[in-house]
Amino acid sequence: MNSVRGFLAASVISIQNSCFVYPACQKCFSRLILDSRRFNCLKCGCTGEAKDANYRYRLSLKIADTDDLFNITVFGSCLDPFFGVTAENLQRCIQDFNHLSGETNPDASPGVLVQAVETCFIGKRFIFGV
């Protein structure tokens, strides 16, 4: 793996998925396996009650600079200013909205949220640390 770090100025072409938050392990940030009562991290073995699971941002983007296209994923609290809330609070809002609207998939992002994220990012230029 190349350990060279740098910056890339690029424009967002598309959002690659509509799931912007995920349940994350507090120790290693890997995706947790959740059931109705418990969570489990397959990477480090951390376990706990599902109600205590932490959430983290994960925004997968297709971006372009002047020469190339790239798939890039932005993680963590650097996205708080764009969403206006922490990933924990956004997940609560999504769950409340899904409950009120009768959505059966608890992880489904409301269409209006997906549209807002697309409006905020697509066509805009950002500097990415890679």
Describe the secondary structure blueprint for this structure.
Elements: E1 7-15, E2 21-24, E3 32-34, E4 38-41, E5 47-49, E6 54-64, E7 69-75, H1 80-83, H2 87-101, H3 111-121, E8 125-129
Antiparallel strand pairs: 1-6, 1-8, 2-6, 3-4, 4-5, 6-7
Helical region count? 3
Would you list the SSEs in sequence order as H and E? EEEEEEEHHHE
Rounded to the nearest angstrom, the distance between the terminal CA atoms is 13 Å
Fraction of residues in β-strands: 35-45%
What structural class do helix, strand and pairing data support?
alpha+beta
- Stretches where pLDDT is under 50 for at least 5 consecutive residues are none
The dominant shape is globular
* Major sheet details: 5 strands, antiparallel
Helix content: 10-25%
Total beta-strand segments: 8
What is the average per-residue confidence, as pLDDT, rounded to a whole number?
A: 92
- Gyration radius over CA: 16 Å
Task: Describe what you observe in this structure.
- One of its GO terms (molecular function) is zinc ion binding.
- With 130 residues, the protein is of the alpha+beta class.
- The protein has a domain at 7-19 and 57-129.
- It is 23% helix and 35% strand.
- The protein contains three helices and eight strands.
- 15% of the residues are buried.
- The mean pLDDT is 92.
What does this entry show, briefly?
The chain is of the alpha+beta class. It is 23% helix and 35% strand.
What are the defining features of this structure?
globular, 3 helices, alpha+beta, 8 strands, 5-stranded antiparallel beta sheet, 130 residues
